[in-house]
């Protein structure tokens, strides 16, 4: 499903006349996380709506997976505005952190909580990938990817959470 938004543009002339024109804004694309990693160049420099599974871990990074992990690598989920995050022209929308917080709290609480939580949903953001990627052992500084340990070839900078629920 493609979303197309109409923008109302009002033009004012020197004579006090106002022209009203409807224009079509550039559509954001609906894709799966699997499509992002299997066709990365098709989605670069675009805000996309992604349907997939977000995995939260107590011991590693939050990732977005759409294909079986053995078939394709995950995308590390990053917040906009941090030094280690690729530059985007948006901020995280209000309510985004609150939407994912229950899953973060599940894996980070002490006691007998699970070490991994999963949430299925629809997210918006922008995808990045490292074309000439090489991974190194975590902490060696040899990797040139994304995330705190730079071990991910693909990154997804999160803009908003449109839907989210525990995966069944």
> How far do the termini sit from each other?
23 Å
Average predicted confidence as pLDDT: 76
Number of domains: 1
How do the SSEs run, as a string of H and E?
EEEHEEEHEE
Query: Which stretches are poorly predicted, pLDDT < 50 over at least 5 residues?
Result: 1-27
Share of residues in helices: 10-25%
The coarse overall form would be globular
Query: What is the CATH C-level name?
Result: Mainly Beta
Largest sheet: 5 strands, mixed, barrel
At CATH's second level, what is the architecture? Beta Barrel
Which structural class do the helices and strands define? mainly beta
Number of strands: 8
How many helices?
A: 2
Spatial ordering of strands, largest sheet: 4-5-6-8-7
> Which band does the percent of strand residues land in?
35-45%
Radius of gyration: 19 Å
Q: The CATH topology is what?
A: OB fold (Dihydrolipoamide Acetyltransferase, E2P)
